[in-house]
From TrEMBL:
Organism lineage string: Bacteria, Bacillati, Actinomycetota, Actinomycetes, Pseudonocardiales
UniProt keyword Zinc present: no
Organism: Saccharopolyspora erythraea (Streptomyces erythraeus)
Recorded GO MF terms: dioxygenase activity
Domain TauD/TfdA-like: 28-316
Keyword set includes Nucleus: no
PANTHER family linked: GAMMA-BUTYROBETAINE HYDROXYLASE-RELATED, TAUD_TFDA-LIKE DOMAIN-CONTAINING PROTEIN
Identification of the protein by name: TauD/TfdA family dioxygenase
Named cofactor requirement(s): Fe(2+)
Amino acid sequence: MSSSTPASALDVDLRPGKPAMLRADAAGDAPRWASEHRDALRAAVAEHGSLLVRGLGVREIAEAAAVFHRLSTGLMTEREAFAARQDHGDGVYSSSKWPANQQMCMHNELSYALEFPGMMQFACLTAPEHGGATAVADTPTVLDALPADLVARFEREGWLLVRNYNDEIGASFAEAFGTDDRAEVERYCRNNAIEFEWQPDGGLRTRQRRSAVVRHPATGRRCWFNQIAFLNEWTIAPEVREFLVEVYGPEGLPFNTLFGNGEPVGEDVVALLNEVYEANTAREPWQDGDLMLVDNIRNAHSREAYEGPREVLVAMADATHLAACSPTIEVTAP
């Protein structure tokens, strides 16, 4: 099958509650197979929002990196990370270092940045014993299922992300911005419409207002594109939230999300968002060697709690600018 083969020629398995799946026969050469099927795979992602490729047999970091590069228009260097990752070089990372017993709720990767990946790529080298799926949810469907008045408010006001960087929890500002040079951090913030304030203890507090609804640059479809639920205080495990508030105070949480006018997003709103995500979630347990491609605007993704070793590599591909997605909130940056 040549790289010009249309997505319709792929034998994609579509089942309710499952991501679109394709069984591959790479004959021990995953990068070559990826090159031969590149256009058809990308077309399938555009059609379905995501695609799980099973049987590709990716086993090593270098092999996964070769597949990632051959399927993308370019890999990104992550900036503004909310949790530490291991950097394997050349745009390939470990999955976020997040407690295995805590779910990472649905989100669109780097949706608080002015430049974000158009496509997320995942390769499973070691599947966990239980759980740990990277689940997906169709963001136009989620948007349509949300109350119209809530959507209208977020379209009008956007959402506000407040972050407190320190060396004790989450990503430090040096990890998030790729430098410990304060002048470089300040320059990045100014260039990316991020308000910043250095704290007396040497930490950094930032605020950035972004659109909650965007239009897909390829299709024009309205998508629920944000991390409002995931990075909100009410999504943090209760005992962890209580501890953090006690230690850092309610204003010192490592991250929190607000309505665009600065008003709190209530626990009821966060619960509603997560309920709508869950009602529209597609999931399939990882198997060793799997590859998953996700349209980062069309699909939100999550990571479920798990048991046992889990090694999933990540690449952020196809850099996309917010300005290309018809944002509802004007962002002022040089």
